[in-house]
Amino acid sequence: MVAEPKPRPPVDRETGEIPLTDEQLIDVIAASDRELEDTQKANGIWHMQAQERITENGGTTLYGRSMNYVMTTKNETDWSKMPPVLEFLTPEEKAEAFTPEHTITVPAVPEHDAVVPDKWAVKGTITKLARRHGDEALAAIEDATFPGKVSGKLVRTET
Predict the structure, then answer these.
(1) Is 56 helix (H, G, I), strand (E, B) or coil?
(2) From CA 145, how far away is CA 152, in angstroms rounded?
């Protein structure tokens, strides 16, 4: 059995607006979703163009009057090359740099609990610890590091 739609008042008494029917509301949401998708696609193209210009210029920034576009490349780690790095570390240092798999519990919403996989803190902790062991350990980290995904963002210039 299909429920009959509830009658809607012709005019909202507080705002003076005419409320949308369910069908009109769905149409507005669908149109908004299409516009958002088009905007996100265009935004991605503009970011690519900015990154291409920066790369062609051999720099990291496009300069504007009130905003700059700054491109960054986040380094990634080749985990197959990490064992030589770990050989330099003491058991205590390894324990400091490693977080075992664990579950984050959300008491209010148990279905949102998440399992966090094993993780080595390469960017901060392992690099800091490797410095203690000298150039050879740092070279092993550098050998395991490669350029990752390029990204860019707008940054407001100081006025």
Answers:
(1) helix
(2) 20
Reduce the secondary structure of the chain to three states and give it as a string: CCCCCCCCCCCCCCCCCCCCCHHHHHHHHHHHHHHHHHHHHHHHHHHHHHHHHHHHHCCCEEECCCEEEEEEEEEEECHHHCHHHHHHCCHHHHHHHEECCEEECCCCCHHHCEEECCEECHHHHHHHHHHHHCHHHHHHHHHCEEEEEEEEEEEECCC
Neighbours of 147 (CB within 10 A): 9
- pLDDT digits over 78-113, tens only? 888 888 888 888 999 888 888 888 888 877 777 778
Global pTM value: 0.54
pLDDT digits (tens, 9 = 90+) for 24-56: 889 999 999 999 999 999 999 999 999 999 999
